[in-house]
Amino acid sequence: xxILGRERRRRxxxxxxxEIVAAVGVNGEPLSRVAQRYDVTRSQIYQWRxxxxxxxxxxxxxxxxxxxxxxxxxxxxxxxxxxxxxASPSIVELCLRQGRRLRFDSSIEGSTLMHLIRAAEGx
Length: 123
Fold this sequence. Notes:
Blueprint: H1 14-23, H2 31-38, H3 42-55, H4 82-87, E1 91-95, E2 101-105, H5 110-122
Antiparallel strand pairs: 1-2
Helix pairs in contact: 1-3
């Protein structure tokens, strides 16, 4: 085996770092796959993302969109007491970026839900 010289650290421009950080989550691509594609460690991407977040250089995440859901009346013949169960709040599961899931009661207020979504997305 022949050693030709010292291994040197790679240097990344700010634009390259931002491109790599921004690639995480695009079309559901996980951080580990992005790290592998760009030949960097996952911890390096986390570090860059932390730096950009601290400096306010990360693009603002898109605002959540709320869709109206109409439960409506059931098509089938309901058993006695069915209406009472529909009127009670139920648990809703929301799938967020990067595989995160948020479970909440259907009676939650919109502003509270917005804060929860932003906190989960920012983590």
